[in-house]
Amino acid sequence: MRYRSTVAVLASMTLLAGCTADPPAAPTKGGTSATPSGAPTLSGPYAAFAAGMSKPVVDPLYPERGTDAVDVLHYGLDLDWSPTKRTLTGTATVHLRPTRDASSVSLDFTPYTLDTVTVDGTSAKAAVTHEKLVVETPVRADVPITVVVGYHGKPSTTPMPSKRGDAHPLGLTVDSEGGIWTMQEPFGAFTWYPANEHPSDEALYDIAITAPKGWTGVASGTPVGQSGTTFTYRSTVPVASYATTLAVGRYKKLAATGPRGIPVTTWYRAKDTRYLPMLKRSPGFLTWLEERFGPYPFDSAGLVMAESGSAMETQQMVTLGEVQPQRGDRMFDLTTVHEYAHHWFGDAVTLTDWRDMWLNEGWALYVQKLYEQDKYGLSDAELVASSRQRDGELRREYGPPSKPDPAEFGATNVYTCGAAMLRQLHQALGDERFFDLARGWVQENLHTQQTRASFTAYVNKKTGHDFTALIDTWLDSPTTPPETGPLAR
Questions:
Q1: pLDDT band at 32, cuts 50/70/90?
Q2: What local confidence, expressed as pLDDT, does residue 98 receive?
Q3: What distances in angstroms separate CA 410 from CA 74, 105, 160, 164, 310, one per listed residue?
Q4: What value, to the nearest 5°, has the Cα angle with vertex 220 and ends 92 and 89?
Q5: What confidence score (pLDDT) does residue 489 get?
Q6: Known binder of ligand: residue 343?
Q7: Would you place residue 29 in the very low, low, confident or very high pLDDT band (cuts 50, 70, 90)?
Q8: What does R_g of the chain's alpha carbons equal in angstroms?
């Protein structure tokens, strides 16, 4: 995560001016054809959204969020924020593929006032009940439709399912100056747009934000341009709803260039000015990460400051709480590297369901520790001693990382115990083979959803060695497994 504070993570292991481009036109009703293997293939105008196709699943930890009956292909969000009225006005154009025949479609949504709802241009009956937008329209499996929802209202957050000390409500949050920002893992996107709220259903996005004069709208995705006070962002590769972000505030812009010419944009407030020396470090972090894990997986990167005590790996635009730079250089660096690491491990390659949160957090924490060793002199002995002690404590308190408690989302075991497993692989393989494995895992699985089983299969195939027992033991054991040595060369 994202918004496990760096203090907590370290303690547990001591361990990102032009004209607005026109968004895609809403397709007329189209269909799909089937490939020889039986997998649906989008045809007609919906073919433009083929990269947003997914295989949604029902989450075993949070089955009330998301649905496997809908595969959202693309969200077109046209949003307008009024700080004086504290009101969000939106039009969401949702291109979706039903996965089975049904009499209605359902998306997660907080109870905003619905102004209009249409399906393929025709008015439809709809209502929001128990944080579900249900649109009464008969649908057929694999025949895409376009649902357009106009809405307005005052944002409200949703509780985080966690007892963590740094947990705070999820979703669209109004700050003390009348701006807005959001962090939403494992859910909370539904507090600002109708969403299929599950990582297994990634989609493409076009987000246009209209802000008051002198304010800026920021979102995940690649900046497309600005027309008046409307700011537009586009994601042409799939994004999980938890990794989207939105912020409106009196931001100043810091533009820089990262590795291979990647544009890196930092959005900060006047009160953040004293931290500019820290905020200018993003290109260096990305260069360090690229050298070890391959090319940055997106067209642009950045960072937006928010009135929060946390941080989040929102895709292409890290959302960073304002307390992070207050903790000093080392803590700022480690937190920010952790979040940027997620752009490889979590955003570019995404978990299929929340049981495998270790697959995101284990990697990000281990990368963070490697950075701490390289830049701050953390020794192998310190890393091993502290991580083994903390690993045992966390397994006793929370259980093994493969069996997360739904009421303890983001507990430290999925970080520390997952990172400890990766350290065992690193120790067994050595630097060259381990970094080859890490690069391959990302670059060969770009923009896909993966699982424990697919990770294990990949490790075994890539290394030519059966690591199933090692991975299973470190993910499932109630106690800290014994150390393993390097493979015989």
A1: low
A2: 98
A3: 28, 30, 10, 8, 13
A4: 35
A5: 59
A6: no
A7: low
A8: 22
| Domain ranges for the chain | 356-476
Distance CA 131, CA 232 (A): 27
Least confident of 34-48, 104-118, 299-313: 34-48
Residue among 166, 410, 183, 162 nearest 306 (CA): 183
pTM score, two decimals? 0.93
CATH superfamily of 356-476: Neutral Protease Domain 2 (1.10.390.10)
CA atoms within 13 A on the CB side of 309: 10
Residue 37: burial class (beta carbons within 10 Å; 0-12, 13-18, 19+): exposed
Task: Find the length of the chain.
Answer: 489
The residue type at 468: T
Average pLDDT over all residues of the chain = 92
Compute the average pLDDT of residues 238-242.
98
Question: What distances in angstroms separate CA 421 from CA 387, 388, 415, one per listed residue?
Answer: 11, 11, 10
- Would you say 299 and 262 are in contact if contact means Cβ atoms under 8 Å apart? yes
CB 50 within 8 A of CB 97: no
- For residue range 350-394, list pLDDT tens digits in order: 999 999 999 999 999 999 999 999 999 999 999 888 889 999 999
Q: Which has the closest alpha carbon to 90: 80, 98, 102?
A: 80
Q: Is 361 annotated as a binding residue?
A: yes
Q: How far apart are CA 124 and CA 404, in angstroms?
A: 40
CA-CA-CA-CA torsion sign (300, 301, 307, 308): positive
Res 31: pLDDT: 59
In order of 105, 311, 337, the CA distances from 300 in angstroms are 34, 19, 16
Query: Which token pair is 135?
Result: 């649109």
